[in-house]
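We treat protein structure as text, and this decision shapes the records that our systems exchange. The tokens are whole numbers drawn from a learned vocabulary of local backbone shapes. One such record is reproduced below, unchanged from the form in which we store it:
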Amino acid sequence: MKCPFCSHADTQVVETRISEEGDSIRRRRQCAACDKRFTTYERPDVNFPTIVKKDGRRIDYERAKLLASMNLALRKRPVSTEQVDSAIERIEEKLLNLGLREVASTRIGELVMRELKKLDKVAYVRFASVYRSFEDIDEFKTLVDEVRR
């Protein structure tokens, strides 16, 4: 695998771990040229359902978009990368287990909120406030009260 830092073609696997769920392999690699380390993930190549946006557009599922939205909600919160990766893997597993060819983006949003609620209450409130497009402070207060219970 090519080094993402110097593009050298010779990299060596220095550590391999199987995820807790057993559905992916995490590999730590080291570049023979610059000695920098990086992580790669090996997962089965599966077909995720097409995402149907609120406006009716259909787009391909992109793990990077899901990761970016979760990381935005989790910004400056004490949640590890491994916890986020595990949450994304659970979301993806649920998407695949649905057995559908198309899934509404709102359903994915609900799955993300469920995972964020388990990981970090503040991140959950951040995500939900944007996702649900609150119109006034009372809706926000209701959500915070719900989290407190």
About this structure: The first strand starts at residue 11 and ends at 18. Residues 1-44 form one domain. The chain is about 45% helix and 20% strand.
